[in-house]
Write a structure and sequence with these properties.
CATH class of the largest domain: Mainly Alpha
Order of helices and strands: EEHHHHHHEEHEHEHHEHHEHHHHH
CATH superfamily of the largest domain: Fumarase/aspartase (Central domain)
Strand content: 5-15%
Number of domains: 3
Mean pLDDT: 96
CATH topology of the largest domain: Fumarase C, Chain A, domain 2
Largest sheet: 2 strands, antiparallel
Low-confidence stretches: none
CATH architecture of the largest domain: Up-down Bundle
Oligomer: single chain
Shape: elongated
């Protein structure tokens, strides 16, 4: 491999001759060979948004001459169009605050800008990574801004996937509304519920998650760009924050961005990203519960509940022929567990800021963006390859609900709690349906049994009753 020699404050170092990155990026790869991962695409793009907006802002103030500014902007546009992505190589587990990632972006843009101006890679003239690409910026205000921008940039896709899954579940709620099944609490027999009611409730949980995520995301619109090193704005022109806000809106397409009221607070605290991460955790918790329910309802088919049938997406065993597993829900469970772990990392990292800066920002960014990415994909796959193809096994739903010991609850207004409890126990012990036991033992008038033990009525608010009054004191 041919190399070029570059120099930074620590001395000289060989850099691959064809690399757009430079000496500080190479040092970072030597110092942090940790995960083998490269930065996630949204983290790269947001940093380039910031650099382009800064060049536009500094050009407008006259601080950066048009020739250099236009070259930086052109280089940024190439990256935003998908070029040079392989030049962003710093491991997510890197030096505190994200200095290595910031310098990776500065070097790539400087080298490409110089090429566009006819200069060689590694010359850093006429465009210098620190003096020109990083003008009026610090890692300490660009990386917090990046976290907000990159999350907001991925938000529409995440919300769209929630809505897609929500609507898919709601459609099943309508489709299955006429199917009464056994309810279960503590995994034990409980009063009847309609299969459609369960799916409608799942859709409702996702809608509440969507609202919480949207509310938490709103705080991310407050930007501290222009705070510079410690939030005070040293080396930054007074008009720079407003210009950055204007150009970041244009470059990113995020129209809701706001100039933060307190740049020092926005630099000190990772509370807003942590709260947003927590809302993702809430989604993961509800989503995992939903797919765990699907796995329970599809259990069997001969030795489990067998109340629903999921689309068969792949063979379920390398040794047991014909076995089909709930593969998509199992995947979603794993994604949700990962998101919960990511949020724990974000929470601990957000707490671990000191004084004017939180140096744990790279791992905060990586975990938030990873959570958004895998949740978005998992919910889309769950809706497309599982939920939309679910069918109900109405026969098994009917079979189990008629055998539920909890049906005795409907008798309670007529015969009292103690007597109803005794009937429930006898039904289980004898293996006799409660409906048959009531008829056999003449516990209710024959013309009232079907009304009181109407399974559909039990799935709506009301007191099961016939023509006779409840037992006094029952």
């Amino acid at each position: 491999m041919t190399t070029r020699i570059e120099k930074d404050p620590l001395g000289e170092l060989a850099v691959p001759a064809d690399a757009l990155y430079g000496v500080q990026t190479v040092r970072a790869t030597q110092n942090f060979p940790i995960s083998g991962l490269h930065p996630l695409a949204p983290f790269v793009l947001a940093q380039i948004w910031i650099k382009k907006a800064a060049a536009l802002s500094n050009k407008e103030t006259g601080r950066l001459d048009a020739r250099r500014a236009d070259a930086i902007i052109a280089a940024a546009d190439e990256i935003l169009a998908g070029q040079h992505r392989d030049q962003f190589i710093v491991d997510p587990y890197q030096a505190g605050a994200g200095t290595s990632h910031n310098m990776n972006a500065n070097e790539v843009l400087a080298n490409r800008a110089n090429e566009l101006l006819g200069a060689a890679r590694g010359s850093y003239a006429p465009v210098h990574p620190n003096d020109h690409v990083n003008m009026a910026q610090s890692t300490n205000d660009t990386i917090p801004t990046n976290i907000r921008l990159s999350a907001l940039g991925q938000l529409p896709s995440l919300l769209a996937s929630i809505i897609f899954l929500r609507d898919s579940l709601a459609a099943k709620g309508v489709e299955f509304d006429g199917i009464v099944k056994a309810g279960r609490t503590h995994l034990q027999d409980a009063m009847p519920i309609r299969l459609g009611q369960e799916f409608t409730a799942y859709a409702g949980s996702l809608e509440r998650c969507r609202r919480r995520i949207s509310e938490a995301a709103d705080y991310l619109n407050d930007l501290g760009i222009g705070g510079s090193a410690v939030g005070t704005g040293v080396t930054v022109e007074p008009q720079y924050p407003a210009l950055m806000n204007k150009y970041l809106k244009a470059v990113s397409g995020i129209s809701t961005l706001r100039i933060g009221e307190d740049f020092i607070q926005l630099m000190q605290s990772m509370g807003d990203p942590a709260a947003f991460s927590a809302s993702l955790r809430g989604l993961a918790i509800d989503l995992s519960k939903i797919v765990s329910d699907l796995r329970l309802m599809v259990s069997g088919p001969r030795t489990g509940l067998d109340e629903i049938v999921l689309p068969a997406v792949q063979p379920g065993s390398s040794i047991m022929p014909g076995k089909i597993n709930p593969s998509i829900p199992e995947m979603v469970n794993q994604v949700c567990f990962q998101v919960i772990g990511c949020d724990t990392t974000v929470a601990i990292s957000a707490e671990h800021g000191q004084l004017e800066l939180n140096v744990m920002m790279p791992v905060i960014a990586h975990n938030i963006l990873l959570s958004m990415q895998i949740l978005t994909s998992a919910m889309t796959v769950l809706a497309e390859r599982c939920v939309r193809g679910i069918t109900a096994n109405a026969g098994m739903c009917e079979y189990w609900v008629e055998r539920s010991a909890a049906l005795a609850t409907a008798l309670m207004p007529q015969i009292g709690y103690a007597a109803a409890a005794e009937i429930s126990k006898r039904s289980v012990k004898e293996g006799t349906l409660i409906r048959e036991m009531v008829k056999r033992d003449h516990l209710l008038p024959d013309d009232e049994i079907d009304s009181i033990l109407d399974l559909r009525k039990m799935t709506e608010i009301g007191v099961p009753s016939g023509k006779h009054a409840a037992v006094a004191g029952g």
